Amino acid sequence: MLSRRDLIASGAAFTQARPAVVEAAQRNGLDIDNRALNDIVMALRDLRHPAASPTVNLVRERQRTFLRQNQRFPEFIDIGIRIWELLQDWHIENGQEMKIARAADGRYTMEFMTTQLVLRPDIADNEIGLAYDR
């Protein structure tokens, strides 16, 4: 049987020895490869700054051309169904609000920056038409 003094003394000795064991265990858990941390950081940066798709770049080029000629952005650009779908995917991937409506003539329109993209099933699927106003 242990006396009270032995019990208290052994408890104090145990608590002094225990932090060393805990520190050793924590150190083993924290030995993470810096390369893995860098990979995680780069992946997070890629999520925050996604690259523009080639389709978005083509639409922006049509807008730039119109802007140079008219000193303002176009109201409309006609696009084919595949371009429409790629731009829908771009909106979803980048967390952008997608504003789709029907124009007075019954055609679907999608707002992209300051321009309305008009879905035209009568043009080629991968075509991006010229920018225009009403």
Describe the 3D structure.
The protein has about 130 residues and is of the alpha+beta class. Helices cover about 55% and strands about 15% of the residues. The longest helix has 27 residues, at about 5-30. The termini are far apart.
Give the proportion of residues in helices: 40-55%
Radius of gyration: 31 Å
Gap from first CA to last CA: 99 Å
Structural class: alpha+beta
Q: In sequence order, what are the helices and strands, one letter per element? A: HHHEHEEEE
Strand order of the largest sheet: 2-3-4-1-5
Q: What characterizes the major β-sheet?
A: 5 strands, mixed
Domain unit count:
2
**Strand composition percent:** 15-25%
Strand count: 5
Instruction: Characterize the quaternary organization of these chains.
Output: single chain
Based on CA inertia axes, which overall geometry fits?
rod-shaped
